[in-house]
Structures are given as C-alpha cells and as structure tokens.
C-alpha cells in the first residue's frame, strides 16, 4: 500500500472519530472547545454544558447537593410456588367380577349401568348337579340325626360304641351339607361392594371360566386422581393438602380435593413422587378414567419484597441501593423469586428499609440522597410503602 493511501485512510479514521465524539459523547465538547477544534467548524458549546468553576468546585464538576431519588419501603412476603401436572382418575373402589368355577351362564341379575348394593346377585351359573348334591346331603343329615335321636332315647340299653358311631355319622353328614351348600353358592356371582355396574357383554348360555370377566363394579362416590410431582417437592406435601383439579374435557370446571396418599419412595427412573388426591363426586358427574389437570400451591419461607425496578446488576451479581440516614449504600442480594409485581430477595434487608427504585444512575456508595415521591415532593427521608398484591 502506498504512503498516500495510508495517509488518506488515517485522515478518514480521524474524521470519523471526531464526528463520533461530537455526535455521541456530548461530554467531550468542552474539552474539544478548549483545544480549539470546534471553532473552525462553527460549533459552539451550549452554556449549560460549559465548564463551571469557582464555587462549584472546579472545572467539569456539577453543583454540590443530594441526589434526588424515589424509594419504597421493603415489605415481607412468602415464597410462592405452584405446580401443574396431569393425572388419571379412578373410582374410590373398583372390583372386577370373575367366576370362581367354570360353568354355563344361566341368568343375569343386573343390567349394565345400574346401581347395585353389596351382596346383590349379578349372574348365576347352571347348578343342577350342585342342587342334587345339596338335597342328598340334606337327606343324609336328616337320617343321621334320626339315628342319634333313637340311640339317645334308648339310653343305657345301647352300647357306647354304637352311640359314638351315630354321633360321628351325624357330624360327617353336617360337613357334607356345608360342602354342598358352598358348592352351590359358588355358582352365584355377587357384588362385593355397592356401586355402578359396567357393561355386561355376556348372555345366557355363554361358557365361562375363572378368567372370564363378567363385569366391573365402581364405587365412584369419590374419584381418586393419581399424579406425579418432581422430587424437589418431597417434604413440602402432606396428607390433607388442598389441590385444585380441572377435567381436561371440561376446562371450565374447577374442583377442589385433598391429598389422600403419598408413595413411600421416589421413582429413580423419572425422579418423581407418586401422589393420590380425592375429589368429591356426590353429583356423579365424573367417571373413572378421566384425565385431570392438578394444581398444587405452596407457601414457603418469608423474604424481603422489593419493586422490580429496584434490582440492579453489577460485576458480582444483583444488588439494591438502600437509603440509611440520608445516605446511599449498595447492598448485595440474592434473588429468590420474581413475580409480576415484586421480587423476593435474600440479603441484609429488613422490612421497612428504604430501597431506591428511581434515580439509581446518580448514586454512589455514601452519597447523600433526598427521597422524593413520584410527583416530585420531598418525603423527609421516609420511603413510600406499598402492600404486596395478593395472589390468587
């Protein structure tokens, strides 16, 4: 590159830098004016930006006086956390009816979708053979009973061994009758709980086995919702805690429930804890299998609460300006929670402390400050106080 090109490039850089100083750094105008660099271009320095001297403390210094700021009193508020998860509903009690023995379905004692009481006969299997065995057992027992009665009436005239044999025959007949009664009862499928019968897909004459599902009975007076929460909430949830549930199919409905069960361990695969909550279903509007959005709210430890505008950032992290006895002090903090209207912080901040929210650009550690209200009136060193907005 030739010397001429280098000189032209240097001059261009100097011109751009000179124009940049004038356009973007107004504070440099007095210095350029003293060096005589502005006069050739017809640029004058406004009187307000000219250097002040004399009683002001020397060239380039502002007039002495406290910095005007707006401050608000720090309040106290609790950490608030909320978690939303999805859970599946199930009936308070639910049973699946299966036959105890194989057989042929002879009759149905309930219809699909009806409510039955505990002990109601839902279905009956053919039991002709068992009925015959029951009648035979009853006959044999009656005969054994008559024998014992005759032996007892004869008294001492009957040998003792004969009396013993008659008593044993009666006891054996009683056991046979009990067995026949039991076998006959096994041909009746009854409801172990009160509840609503599911759809019965079988009909009379169907062959069933102990693995054939007759139907399901649900006690849905309450719906139990099973869901999971992250392990960081372990220790914050207890039995009886309130939950809010919304059916995914009906987002306009808001239901209230309580935590009824907590698992005894965290799932190591998902790092979650399984919970169960109960929802009242006295109006029978919910069904087992429905999906719910579950919301839990937690109130934690109390911390100082300040306005979001009060938070400043430095090389070592966040801080706030605290006004103490008319002077500003920088206080390092840790942000615990950000809300829409306030920030919860941890640090050497007591409730009621004056925290600067406006005018922070004029502050330095130890600077005198004058606290004003938003309309420009001096408050006499007392900060404005605001109550934290309640959370829904």
From TrEMBL:
<dbReference type="Pfam" id="PF25967">
    <property type="entry name" value="RND-MFP_C"/>
</dbReference>
<keyword id="KW-0472">Membrane</keyword>
<dbReference type="Pfam" id="PF25973">
    <property type="entry name" value="BSH_CzcB"/>
</dbReference>
<dbReference type="InterPro" id="IPR058647">
    <property type="entry name" value="BSH_CzcB-like"/>
</dbReference>
<dbReference type="InterPro" id="IPR058627">
    <property type="entry name" value="MdtA-like_C"/>
</dbReference>
<feature type="domain" description="CzcB-like barrel-sandwich hybrid">
    <location>
        <begin position="95"/>
        <end position="219"/>
    </location>
</feature>
<feature type="transmembrane region" description="Helical">
    <location>
        <begin position="7"/>
        <end position="29"/>
    </location>
</feature>
<dbReference type="Pfam" id="PF25954">
    <property type="entry name" value="Beta-barrel_RND_2"/>
</dbReference>
<keyword id="KW-1133">Transmembrane helix</keyword>
<dbReference type="GO" id="GO:1990281">
    <property type="term" value="C:efflux pump complex"/>
</dbReference>
<feature type="compositionally biased region" description="Low complexity">
    <location>
        <begin position="372"/>
        <end position="386"/>
    </location>
</feature>
<comment type="similarity">
    <text>Belongs to the membrane fusion protein (MFP) (TC 8.A.1) family.</text>
</comment>
<protein>
    <submittedName>
        <fullName>RND family efflux transporter, MFP subunit</fullName>
    </submittedName>
</protein>
<feature type="domain" description="CusB-like beta-barrel">
    <location>
        <begin position="225"/>
        <end position="297"/>
    </location>
</feature>
<dbReference type="GO" id="GO:0015562">
    <property type="term" value="F:efflux transmembrane transporter activity"/>
</dbReference>
<feature type="domain" description="Multidrug resistance protein MdtA-like C-terminal permuted SH3">
    <location>
        <begin position="310"/>
        <end position="361"/>
    </location>
</feature>
<keyword id="KW-0812">Transmembrane</keyword>
<feature type="region of interest" description="Disordered">
    <location>
        <begin position="370"/>
        <end position="392"/>
    </location>
</feature>
<dbReference type="InterPro" id="IPR058792">
    <property type="entry name" value="Beta-barrel_RND_2"/>
</dbReference>
<dbReference type="InterPro" id="IPR006143">
    <property type="entry name" value="RND_pump_MFP"/>
</dbReference>
